[in-house]
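The aim of this short unit is practical: by the end, you should be able to scan a pair of folded records and say something sensible about each. We start with the first protein, listed as its amino acid sequence and then its structure tokens.
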Amino acid sequence: MHAHPQTRADLTHVAHLIGDIAVAMLTNVEADGDLASRPMVPLEMDADGALWFFTDLRSAKVEHLRVVNVGFSDIAAGTYLSLSGRGEIDTDPGRIRRLWTPLAQAWFPEGSDSAALGLLKFVPDSADYWDAPKSRMVRAFGAVAAAITGQPVPPEVQGAHGAHVGLSAPEPTVS
């Protein structure tokens, strides 16, 4: 995924956390109220923090984008991110061609001109993240040691947990 330079520190942090994660899980609320999740390949994080994905315009999900969650996980790096927000559909042919990748050909054999091809623009409102950059072995050892001793996993092994709220709102300006 290509991440454009962000103008806000919280969005820069989100871009850094998800930069190398190739697949996200997109979850939305279906018409019957059930949650539905599906893997999606992020194409770009634009300068405003929106994430862009290719989508099939015939999919039921395009009708249910008012409340959406996009989850990222990188087990090897100990990075987990949950973004809440909303989705929008974009059918701009120029943007579709610019974001087109040969890997999308498997889902859209007609190419970037496919009538079924659109873009899902995900606009995040908030983010929760867990970032435990220590090695998998250190994290596993810390968890085992905590289980044996009955003590909590030490914070330096747990990593950081944080939240960014108001991601889609412009930062206040001082006049």
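Turning to the second protein, read its sequence before its tokens, just as you did above.
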Amino acid sequence: MKLTTLSHGGANDLSDVIERLLIEELRISNRYLPVRRVPLSKLLEMEFPHVVLRDGTLHFFRRKELEELLKYVENDEVEKLELPIIIVMRPDIGEGVSVVEDEIAARVIARVLGIRYEGGALYLYRPHVAMLRERFDTVFQIVVSPRVFEDLIEIRSEGMGI
């Protein structure tokens, strides 16, 4: 990466450098996320249930957890519920707030927690996430998303304001 562009082109070059650095940082921090998620039904068929992570390593699921989770999954959801379930921590919304965007996963989580779910994204709080991780440690993956790209777009549209 050429940092010499900082001295030549001003704010636009600086924002390009910042954007590339943020993309690289997110790539590094998300290396433990799966390349693709796998339906619960397929994981239950595997001798050693697992998914491949972006860094090439394997994430193994505890069979006991999968079987326990199955108790909260309706018949028509077994093929559709993909694991691991991704919980996105959203500090931009509030401290300790997390979101599950996947509606099938949200329905299952609501059943596990015994909370009401009315469709759309499911908002969870720190105690909810702690309980889920305690019971189903290998089933969930937590991602932190401060929505930095939205902030970057705002900065670019304001001409960097420097």
